[in-house]
Write a structure and sequence with these properties.
- The protein has helices spanning 24-33, 37-48, 61-69; strands spanning 75-78, 92-97, 106-111, 114-117, 130-132, 139-147.
- It is α+β, with helices and mostly antiparallel strands.
- The protein has a single domain (24-149), classed as Cathepsin B, Chain A.
- It has a six-stranded antiparallel beta sheet with strand order 1-6-2-3-4-5, with helices on one face.
- 35% of the residues are buried.
Length: 154
Amino acid sequence: MNNGLPKPAKRYGLVSQNVDEWGCGVACVASLTGTPYAEAKERLETTKGAGINVQPKGLELHDIALALQTYGKYVVADWQERDLASYPNGTIVCIGDKDASRDSHHYMLKTPSGWMDPWHNMDRKPREAGFRQTYPRGKYFLVALVPKRRTAVR
């Protein structure tokens, strides 16, 4: 019995961004670190210095990288696209729409089960997380946050 408390997060588990329009980065950090969404959100908002739904909406790469450091995880930005299967587990990719709108940016996390997409059913609500092997239709690579070798996640 859990006494009404949320069950603990599972590392590399599915984490939905259902509560936040701009929560894909939060969900990726929560899944990577095995922490509850609310805890990851609090750390990311502290790093950003504002709420994730406050302008600029969402999270920038450095917000995610700095928040991950508070968990002892270090990443480097890789602007060179490669085959999706070749990224190590723990990689967070930022993808965008073909129209290149800032509002179209979205984060996904590489896991042993594939790419954890916090809004797998894009443009539908409630937002649901799911695993996928490729980018969602109409999306393209922008940048990847790849774990540094000495702190690579397993």
